[in-house]
Amino acid sequence: MTVIVCLVGTHFRRPFEGIRYWSKRKGITRLYLLYSDKEAEDETKVFNYMSRKNALDLMERLEILDPILVGFDPMDYKDTFKKIYAILARAREEGEEVLIDITSTTNIAEGAALTIALMFRNARVYTVPAARPAWYVKGEPEDPEFQKWFETARNVPSLEPLEIKLPGYRLEPHSERESRIWEQEKRLLVLLREHGGRADSISEIIGWFGYKSPNSTLRNRFSRIVARLEEKGLVRAEMGAKLKGVRLTEFGEIFAEALTEKGFE
User: Fold this and answer.
1) 143: pLDDT strictly greater than 70
2) Which CATH class is domain 2-154?
């Protein structure tokens, strides 16, 4: 079962259609609409108005899903983190997956959502692209109206940079021993990509590494490699009474292609 967390901001239709898309494909157990409830008198009051208005309209249009409204401050990293974390922690306890919509929220809230998604295996993040890129641009490049808008848009004042805090765990190793293991894991990813993205057995993988006769030691060794890659979300093992096959995940395919283009041997 699936929980959707929609960080409601400046858009209505794109998040609405995104939620409808997932509701047709998954069993939605809960829908959270996180909207800005911050009281402000500066420029952020415009965003707050749009966020609140869109959340209320989404709640009305998606009444069948019984949406849960949650107020938060999308300009405050800590507040955003705490609100999303509580939802994901509950979903993990109940064995649910979580989809987080970052289509129209602030950069700060987007960063918090991505950070939390890195911490939970049951979390995924998505955005709903606009059908017409740059739909918000005023005029054409040769128009004075466009040049005026462009100058204003590209010279908006800034605040101090805000580093997005990430979990300590990384795919890349931090010790010599882990580096040696990681090189083997990356080699397997490249080999999987070269062989169509999947292997039918551990024995087949062992053969790719140049071993002619698989034995129990080699099987155990390569089974551990596959298990580590699966924990990292790079491969998916198909299990039966024994391992039936291994295939690259979508992220694994992207990473393997990056390794290949980098010239990994």
Assistant:
1) yes
2) alpha beta
